[in-house]
Design goal:
alpha+beta, 10 strands, 6-stranded mixed β-barrel, 435 residues, elongated
Length: 435
């Protein structure tokens, strides 16, 4: 019986709310209601698009660093008597681990045959890592040549580093200054390497400073005391703590460190930038919530006679208040679901959207210039910034999308609840007397 009464109460609340809404569409409150819905819609849409583009922009940096430079977990031997096979065997049998790659690393001042020099980080890797490490090959995009380190004294360098040195595939560079142990010559003109490939990735610092040689050359040139490091890739980078605990338990004699310990300040800056941007855009909902609050207060005042009649007929204050809360919920839901659909559509088609905007701006500028200043038409061209934006792959994190959607619904709901708290501030007799 109680459930039946509750269902009847809910139906009554929605029925009265819909009747109020139909009347308000023809009254003064129609504009306020439409603007509130549009505000929620554009707020949700804008926040989803901004966060998706920001995620794509930041993750292009983060993925390049994790896949090419820091790996997810690094293992360095602390006990020389321990065999590396134990580590490799455990990694091969662990479902959370995708690959393990040994490497050496050193700093160098690289010179070219064109009398140019540039500082660089040189990493000696397994020549086959490009083929068994999917993350490595997906982030390291070859612009010239191939990832061929089979031959001795072969090297693959970043695109910006190649431009600074003025070299191309087939040219020779020299590791003029090389860091290492005591048995490594600091200066040498004999450490010559032939360029077999030029790569680019999503992080400009790696393009400007990184190069790769094979492990045999690393052992040859970096000295006997060079420390070998094992870079471990895991299926979910957020499970790094779990993997490290498993490694420490099953494979002793190594020091393990997580990707979170590398470039901590850089990752922290990206996180702060993202949070501040999200906070600034979220202020849209605060403005819309205030507008809904003011509009709902006016709506409550305009409906004071109906409220008094409903109260006189026995309607509880809580139920009358729920009528206006339902109005806020409806406004938030319609606006949030519309913004969600538009935001997702634009986010998955950012390349088309930015290209279209670029073309549109060009033709608008072209037409205006041809009318008012035709002699300057030769200077009209598309804005290259839009092409840069179009090249950024937007990434949608569905937890963020759900949070934005719920926030877009809650803000008008909260504003409606606050505005309808004093729904019967005037007594019934006062309201009917003024009517």
């Amino acid at each position: 019986m109680k459930n039946k009464d509750k269902n009847n109460n809910v139906k009554w609340i929605f029925l009265v709310s819909q009747r109020f809404a139909r009347v308000d569409r023809k009254g003064k409150s129609a504009v306020t209601s439409v603007l509130a819905t549009l505000g929620i819609c554009f707020g949700v849409m804008t926040l989803i698009i901004v966060m998706s583009v920001m995620n794509g922009f930041q993750m292009s940096f983060i993925d390049s660093i994790l896949e090419l430079s820091s790996y997810h977990v690094q293992a360095k031997k602390t006990d020389l008597s321990v065999s590396e096979k134990q580590l490799q065997t455990f990694c091969e049998n662990n479902k959370n681990i995708l690959s393990v790659s040994p490497y050496y690393e050193a700093q160098t001042l690289m010179t070219s045959e064109y009398n140019k020099e540039s500082a660089a980080i040189i990493r000696a890797v397994d020549p086959d890592c490009y083929f068994y490490d999917d993350g490595f090959s997906s982030q390291l995009r070859l612009r010239r040549g191939s990832f061929d380190l089979e031959e001795p004294n072969s090297i693959i360098i970043g695109s910006t580093l190649a431009r600074n040195l003025g070299v191309a595939v087939g040219d020779v560079v020299n590791l003029f200054v090389l860091s290492g142990s005591d048995d490594v010559s600091l200066f040498s003109n004999d450490r010559n390497f032939e360029i077999t490939g030029i790569f680019t990735c999503g992080y400009s610092e790696l393009n400007a400073s990184y190069c790769f040689i094979n492990l045999a050359d690393g052992e040859k040139y970096f000295g006997n005391d060079a420390t070998i490091t094992y870079g471990i890739k895991i299926a979910d980078k957020e499970k790094d703590a779990l993997v490290i605990s498993q490694l420490k338990k099953n494979v002793t004699g190594f020091n393990y460190s997580s990707w979170r310990e590398y470039n901590k300040s850089f990752f922290g800056a990206l996180r702060i930038e993202k949070n501040m941007l999200m906070l600034l855009v979220a202020l849209i909902f605060v403005v819309v919530g205030i507008n809904i609050y003011n509009g709902m207060r006016r709506l409550v005042f305009e409906r004071r006679s109906e409220i008094a009649i409903l109260s006189a007929l026995g309607a509880e204050t809580r139920k009358i208040q729920s009528i206006f809360i339902v109005r806020g919920f409806t406004t938030g839901f319609i606006g949030a679901i519309s913004g969600l659909i538009l935001g997702l559509l634009i986010s998955v088609n950012t390349d088309f959207v930015f290209s279209f905007v670029s073309s549109l701006m060009f033709w608008v500028q072209y037409i205006i210039t041809s009318i008012f200043s035709p002699q300057n038409l030769v200077y009209v061209q598309e804005n290259s910034t839009y092409a840069l934006y179009a090249s950024i792959p937007a990434r949608i994190f569905y937890k963020e999308v759900v949070f934005i959607f719920l926030f877009g619904m809650i803000s008008p709901l909260f504003a409606s609840w606050v505005a309808s708290k004093n729904v019967l501030k005037m007594t019934i007799a006062e309201v009917l007397h003024h009517e």
